[in-house]
TrEMBL record:
Oligomeric form and interacting partners: Interacts with 100S ribosomes. Associates exclusively with 100S ribosomes, which are dimers of 70S ribosomes.
Keyword match Methyltransferase: no
Gene behind the chain: raiA
Lineage of the species this protein comes from: Bacteria, Pseudomonadati, Pseudomonadota, Alphaproteobacteria, Rhodobacterales
InterPro entries from the UniProt entry: HPF/YfiA_ribosome-assoc, HPF_long/plastid, RHF-like, RHF/RaiA, Ribosom_S30AE_C, Ribosom_S30AE_C_sf
Alphabetical keyword list: Cytoplasm, Translation regulation
PANTHER family: 30S RIBOSOMAL PROTEIN
Record flagged with keyword tRNA-binding: no
Protein family according to the UniProt entry: Belongs to the HPF/YfiA ribosome-associated protein family. Long HPF subfamily.
Identification of the protein by name: Ribosome hibernation promoting factor
Organism annotation: Thetidibacter halocola
Amino acid sequence: MRYQITGKHIDIGDALQTHVKDELGTVLAKYSQRPTEAVVIFSKSAHEFVCESTVHLSTGLTAAAKAHATEIYAAFDACAEKMDKQLRRYKRRLKDHHKDRTEPVELMGASSYILAAGTAETEEEEPESLQPIIVAEMQTKIPSLTVGEAVMQMELAGAPVLVFRNEKKDGVNVVYRREDGNIGWIDP
């Protein structure tokens, strides 16, 4: 498994990197036999340290966790505990999907755009054109999943929405978290 441990504007020492590899490796060994990559990013927000971790599994699923603490080791430990809780919570679902899925998740490329948000004073004025202003353009990957796997992937990643290609109907679908706490599914 590959580890990518970095710090944003802070120095990450060898002792912390060893601690992260040992602790995260222990958590992943308990619940997931096939992780491929772990990305851990440390940053500082005011007086707190922030630890964000993302683990990519060989099936294409991604688990993410984020934690804050006044000490950097405590921030990582809280983040690892959240990752442990997520993987423990979804262990049965992950195992059930592994039995059905013999091949890794297929990914297809797509373009992703970030559009400029309008400000209060510019929204009152009539826009010159109806074309949105594109701030950034990047490539992203859309996984080919079942609806159940898509919901699980969205919950593991902590994302509010997930676009995926439905394996059963071979079309692009969307699952999202509704305001009432339920999951919505758009199947055009």
